[in-house]
Design brief:
Blueprint: E1 54-57, H1 65-74, H2 79-82, E2 86-88, E3 94-96, H3 99-107, E4 111-114, E5 138-140, E6 151-154, E7 160-162
Length: 174
């Protein structure tokens, strides 16, 4: 006498792959994101609104009192001045007014941005292209005489070439 046994699938196991009668399921292809997208900070001068544009208060009011107070603070200021403000959020905490807040208020028509020079950006010192003001390297006659990462070999032209490469992990950073 044959006894039929019923096999139960253990908990946590995946289902078997589809049989030949079922069509295979294709996975969706992932779209590669363009370089520079994602969490990277926007480039200087690439803000949504010109930083020297004026912010005007409109007649539209919010049902949230803190949003109305926030918009009232921005009235008559430039975009740059608005981004330097602090306001009390819904919980009463003092937080910075950010570009996202300005966009939200403009989209809700509580504020309007008028005028400004496109691409107007604050004066920010640009980093130099590899030229730094560091202490000069200590010149030595041979690489063997160099005792720290701040040393190098003086070439015939007078330039001191840093002694870096194989074995420099033994040198002290002085």
């Amino acid at each position: 006498m044959a006894v039929d046994t019923v096999r139960k699938k253990p908990a946590g196991k995946r289902a078997a792959s589809p049989s030949g009668s079922q069509p295979p399921v294709k996975k969706a292809k992932r779209v590669a994101s363009a370089p520079g997208l994602g969490f990277a900070a926007p480039a200087a001068g690439k803000s949504a609104y010109p930083l020297d544009a004026k912010v005007k208060r409109t007649d539209v009011a919010s049902s949230q009192p803190y949003l109305n107070k926030r918009c009232d603070k921005c009235a008559g200021l430039t975009v740059q001045q608005c981004l330097e403000l602090k306001y009390a959020n819904a919980k009463g905490e003092k937080v910075d007014y950010k570009m996202a807040d300005l966009k939200y208020d403009v989209q809700a028509k509580r504020l309007a941005v008028v005028g400004g020079t496109p691409g107007a950006a604050p004066k920010v010192a640009k980093p130099s292209l590899g030229v730094t003001k560091a202490a000069p390297l200590d010149a030595a006659k041979t690489v063997a005489e160099v005792k720290s990462l701040a040393g190098g070999v003086k070439l015939a032209s007078g330039t001191v070439m840093p002694a870096v490469g194989f074995g420099t992990y033994k040198l002290k950073n002085e």
